[in-house]
Design brief:
Layout: H1 3-32, H2 51-54, H3 60-93, H4 99-111, H5 114-127, H6 134-158, H7 162-170, H8 175-203, H9 207-212, H10 219-226, H11 233-260
Helix pairs in contact: 1-11, 3-6, 3-8, 3-10, 4-6, 6-8, 7-8
Length: 261
């Protein structure tokens, strides 16, 4: 066997090991959503059952926490996508004073540890006498998700051929018409990728949320609080459904992008 073939096989094997390693926690979560547990603990397999799917919303506090997380994630994603798309367009297409500083702040927001960001946001809200509640969680999630949307949209707009927009304007399209019919469809894959990333970052955030939540309990906060008494199987079921919906959205987006190209 040649060295190149041996190297290819080793690389192929390492790739599958990494995939298995990364997907094993998800597989365990899905599996234990079917566990017929007889106690509060859900750490050992005791049989197969579908009853937890039928009893998904029986724990009222857990249902409220999930609803809070979904509401916060949806609102923060919409706000982040709108602001992030405009900022990404500005950074990718235009020159203006302070552009270098803005780029630096965007990447600084990505690299800032969540602990530091959570503590700084808490200090901001306390010093401004802002009561911590759902609104402060949404503001915080927009702030730490915004940079990711900006980066994805900016990367897409840089690859966009400016002659397409120029041709639309030459044919009589207004600035808004050019953006709506040419620019936005062209950058939509980047916008959708930023939206999905923003939603994922928001719905599973624990560190920043724990600083600014006040009395509002989100899905991750509820899970951490339930560890002492035992995490119910409904948590696994909810996590499985969220993961499944995410996979479906990603597949639909990938198919739509492929059809456009």
């Amino acid at each position: 066997m040649s060295r190149s073939r041996l190297g290819d096989r080793l690389l192929h094997g390492y790739t599958w090991l990494i995939i298995i390693w990364l997907s094993s926690p998800i597989a365990v979560m899905i599996l234990f959503g079917f566990n017929d547990k007889q106690s509060k603990s859900n750490t050992s397999w005791q049989g197969f059952t579908l009853k937890w799917y039928a009893q998904l919303f029986e724990i009222s506090d857990l249902t409220v926490a999930l609803r809070n997380s979904l509401l916060i994630a949806v609102i923060s994603t919409v706000v982040t996508v709108v602001i992030g798309t405009m900022l990404g367009l500005a950074l990718g297409r235009h020159r203006f004073r302070g552009k270098g500083t803005t780029n630096f702040l965007v990447f600084a927001a990505i690299s800032t540890p969540e602990l530091v960001m959570g503590a700084s946001l808490l200090s901001l809200f306390v010093s401004g006498n802002v009561p911590r509640a759902t609104a402060t969680i949404i503001i915080s999630h927009v702030l730490f998700s915004l940079a990711f949307v900006v980066v994805t949209v900016r990367a897409r707009i840089v690859t966009l051929d400016p002659s397409l927009e120029e041709a639309a304007r030459d044919l009589g399209a207004t600035a808004w018409g050019t953006f709506r019919q040419v620019t936005l469809p062209s950058i939509m894959p980047g916008v959708m990728a930023g939206a999905m990333l923003s939603f994922a970052l928001s719905i599973d955030d624990y560190v920043v949320t724990s600083f600014v939540n006040g009395s509002t309990v989100t899905f991750p906060l509820w899970i951490v609080g339930a560890v002492k008494t035992g995490i119910p199987a409904q948590v696994n079921v909810m996590g499985t459904l969220i993961f499944g919906i995410g996979v479906v959205i990603a597949v639909v987006n990938a198919v739509a992008v492929r059809r456009r190209t």
